Amino acid sequence: MELQLEKKSVVITGGASNIGRSIVLGFAEEKAKITLADTDVSQAEIVASEAIELGAESVTVVECDVTNGKNVDKMFSEVVAHNGTVDVLVNNVGYDELKYFTQTDPEFWRKIIEINFIGVLNCTYSALSIMASQNHGSIVSISSDASRQGEPKEAVYGGMKAGVNSFMKTIAKENGRHGIRCNVVCPGVTIPAEPHAVGGNSMWSDMDSMFTVEQLEKIANSLPLKKIGRPKDVANAVLFLASEAAGHVTGQVLSVSGGYSMIG
Length: 264
Ligand SMILES: NC(=O)c1ccc[n+]([C@@H]2O[C@H](COP(=O)([O-])OP(=O)(O)OC[C@H]3O[C@@H](n4cnc5c(N)ncnc54)[C@H](O)[C@@H]3O)[C@@H](O)[C@H]2O)c1
Description:
This protein is of the alpha/beta class. It has a single domain, classed as NAD(P)-binding Rossmann-like Domain (Rossmann fold).
């Protein structure tokens, strides 16, 4: 299969940790020109070194808070200045804390809405203006299986991820005529490959606040494939959807969750 990602200018948000890191390393193996946009610059620099070792054509780390539209515009201007264009955007940033809705408050809701939804709008808006003028591009957003069928303790997060799924379908319909493809990957529970693969800002930096070992075993046993997802599982799907190998695929939502949800 020809991915044809060599020397492509790829922007990955939240690439410093866990799934984003694995996506960065996947594009590095394909020799892409990578821009890693994250709030955690020190962890991003570590991932950038790993990516260079794996064969990335180039890696640029940009400090960027995706919830801040001005930050995002500046980041995309820097990408165009360095790499000439943007061929691929991966909207990977996301965040949640597991709590029942009645244990949350409006301040928490706003944080979850800003990071998981407004961040995707900001980055997609900036990327589309560049991609439309060149008549090609591919956008992949990382959603969650929590968006597909309701997930206790993830009410607002699941709602925002469902918003991402719908948003991406509309963007796919509006921009197909410019040669821009837009797709979504929904991970299920995806645990870090190793402890050093998460940054200090990661929702996994305190693993026990997410899942205990016993809970992870229970989740694995409940899945048709009987195993918990790893970041590389998600990265493989993202690389495919971003690549020319998926040149006739747009507006799709793909679960990578061991069969947790089976929609469509
Ligand atoms: N890991 C899972 O089990 C799982 C399951 C379903 C969906 N997802 C989704 O996959 C994506 C990646 O998850 P992960 O587990 O790798 O997360 P993570 O918390 O390990 O990493 C997130 C990265 O995003 C960065 N970040 C956070 N807020 C930011 C902001 N405002 N601007 C820029 N960077 C910011 C963090 O510094 C960190 O490097 C997210 O969208 C998440 O919602 C994850």
